[in-house]
Design a protein that fits this description.
about 280 residues, four-stranded antiparallel sheet, elongated, seven-stranded mixed sheet, alpha+beta, about 30% strand
Length: about 280
């Protein structure tokens, strides 16, 4: 799917533009791609002009929502699938996303993009072939491209998430010149797709699955055995786990994961909000 190139609006941005007009300004500078760049816009009572194209003033925009121009008006970037998938603005520019109101990426204390950059650094992607098991918004992939990865094989199961990516300017476009053909994004369930990868065919792995209660198969011994099969000896992996159920049940998912990875053939240790592992 091609990436959207039109303007994105949030309620605070709309308020900023209308306040400028109310104060007598006929021109303003603002970001219409969630902080990636800034543009000048012309303001009038009827609407505003961005890159030579006129847009009407929206009647009202929803809070905590990013809106895109669908050809007739500004629509919320949300879609129903197996749940309600929604792109959500943050104070950092790079958005997070939610499924049925559950936030999928950290954003309270750190930018979700910077969080991804810290985790990607653990696998040292420069010049490597990297497996990105659960692509999500593509922030791992973007940081790998930025760091000089040779190739990144990224899988995403959800059609709704892939749609959100096409509207998110922080999500890398596999067809963009900056990707240089290095990002291979596949709409597939990695649990089955991984069986088609050759033994020792990747140098590093980034595994950022949904929480255990949603996708337990991605925490299974059988899947970890597949990860051990496709990564070369000495290869690095970061596995996001978070700490689900620790306060309510006392269950320690990161340590459970580390034990299974050890059994699969990795040397594992707790790191950041997950597990770092080396293939033995």
């Amino acid at each position: 799917m091609s990436h959207y190139t039109g303007p994105l609006l949030t309620r605070p941005l709309l308020d900023q533009l209308q306040a400028a007009l109310k104060n007598g300004h006929r021109q303003a500078r603002a970001s219409f791609d969630l902080g990636r760049s800034e543009d000048s816009v012309m303001l009038s009572a009827d609407g505003w002009h961005w890159r030579g194209q006129p847009f009407p003033w929206p009647a009202r925009l929803k809070d905590r929502t990013i809106h895109y121009w669908d050809g007739s008006g500004f629509a919320a970037i949300s879609r129903f699938g197996s749940g309600l998938y929604k792109l959500v603005p943050t104070d950092w520019g790079a958005p997070t996303f939610e499924i049925d109101g559950i936030k999928m990426l950290p954003s309270a204390q750190v930018s979700p993009f910077e969080d991804a950059r810290t985790k990607v650094a653990l696998v040292q992607p420069q010049g490597k072939v990297v497996l990105d098991t659960c692509g999500g918004m593509g922030y791992f992939a973007a940081c790998c491209l930025e760091a000089g990865v040779a190739q990144i094989l990224s899988f995403e199961k959800s059609a709704e998430v892939l749609w959100l990516r096409t509207l998110n300017p922080w999500s890398p476009d596999p067809e963009a010149a900056t990707a240089g053909g290095r990002l291979q994004l596949t709409h597939a369930d990695v649990c089955s797709a991984i069986t088609a990868l050759a033994d020792a065919s990747v140098d590093a792995i980034l595994h950022d699955p949904p929480r255990f209660g949603i996708a337990g198969e991605l925490y299974s011994q059988a899947f970890y055995d597949q990860l051990a099969r496709v990564i070369r000896r000495g290869g690095r992996m970061f596995h996001y786990t978070g700490a689900p159920n620790k306060l309510t049940s006392g269950r320690d998912v990161p340590r459970e994961v580390a034990k299974r990875l050890e059994k699969a053939g990795f040397k594992a240790q707790l790191a950041l909000d997950g597990v770092f592992a080396l293939r033995r």
